[in-house]
Write a structure and sequence with these properties.
single chain, about 220 residues, alpha+beta, NADH Oxidase, 9 helices, NADP, Nitroreductase
Length: about 220
C-alpha cells in the first residue's frame, strides 16, 4: 500500500468518526484493540515529553455506574466498553522531573550528568509555576493525549466520545485521585456504535478550509 492510499484511508476514517452518543452494550473491545489504543495514547506528544498525567481505563461495571451518576446520568458511561479518564497532576514535584530524567537516561543509555542542562531548565521553568498554573498546564497536556486517542480510535475503526460533562470532584472521589496527587480533567468513552444511534448518519459539520485557515 502506497503513502497516498494510506493518507486517503486516514482522512476517510476521520470522516467516519463522530462523538458516539449510543454505544452497543453487547460489544466489548478485544484485548488486542485495547492494547493498540493504550500504546497509541502512550506515544502522545506532551510538552517537554514530561506527560504530567495518568490515565485510568475503566471496564468494571460497578465503577462505571458510579461514574455515570457523576456525569449527569449520560448512558455512554455504562454502555461503552471502556471509559478513559485523563487525570493531570495536581502539583508537579521535583521528584516527578527526576523520575522523567532517570527514564531518559535509562532509555537512551546516557548518564544523568549529560542531562544537567535539561534538568536545570525543567526545574527552573516548571517548579516556578504556581500550583494552579501547573494544574492548568497539566490539563492541557491531557487534551493532547485525548486527541491522539480519538485519532487512533478512528484509524482502528473503534468508536469514541470525548466528554467534559461530568462532576470533576465526584470523579476524583470515586477514583480516589486526591490521594494520588491527581485530578480528572477530561474523559472519553470507547466501544462500538449502536445501529440505533442516528447521529452516525448525519453529515459532519465543520468550518471550510477558507474559514478555518489563514496561510501567510
Amino acid at each position: 500500500m502506497n503513502l497516498e492510499v494510506k493518507t486517503e484511508n486516514y482522512i476517510e476514517n476521520l470522516h467516519w468518526r463522530y462523538a458516539t452518543k449510543k454505544f452497543d452494550k453487547e460489544r466489548e473491545l478485544s484485548e488486542e484493540d485495547l492494547q493498540k489504543l493504550l500504546e497509541s495514547v502512550r506515544l502522545s506528544a506532551s510538552s517537554y515529553g514530561l506527560q504530567p498525567y495518568e490515565i485510568f481505563v475503566i471496564k468494571d461495571t460497578e465503577t462505571k455506574k458510579k461514574l455515570r451518576e457523576a456525569a449527569w446520568n449520560q448512558p455512554q458511561l455504562t454502555d461503552s466498553s471502556h471509559v478513559f479518564v485523563f487525570a493531570n497532576f495536581r502539583k508537579i514535584e521535583e521528584a516527578d522531573i527526576d523520575a522523567y530524567l532517570d527514564n531518559i537516561a535509562k532509555t537512551r543509555n546516557i548518564s544523568r550528568e549529560d542531562l544537567k542542562g535539561m534538568e536545570d531548565m525543567l526545574k527552573t521553568t516548571i517548579l516556578s509555576f504556581t500550583e494552579e498554573e501547573q494544574r492548568i498546564w497539566g490539563a492541557k497536556q491531557t487534551y493532547i493525549a485525548l486527541g491522539n486517542l480519538l485519532s487512533a480510535a478512528a484509524e482502528f475503526r473503534i468508536d469514541a466520545c470525548p466528554m467534559e460533562g461530568f462532576d470533576n470532584s465526584k470523579f476524583d472521589e470515586i477514583l480516589e485521585l486526591n490521594s494520588k496527587n491527581l485530578t480528572s480533567s477530561v474523559i472519553a468513552t470507547v466501544g462500538y456504535r449502536s445501529e440505533e444511534d442516528n447521529v452516525q448518519h448525519l453529515d459532519k459539520v465543520r468550518k471550510s478550509k477558507s474559514e478555518l485557515y489563514t496561510i501567510l
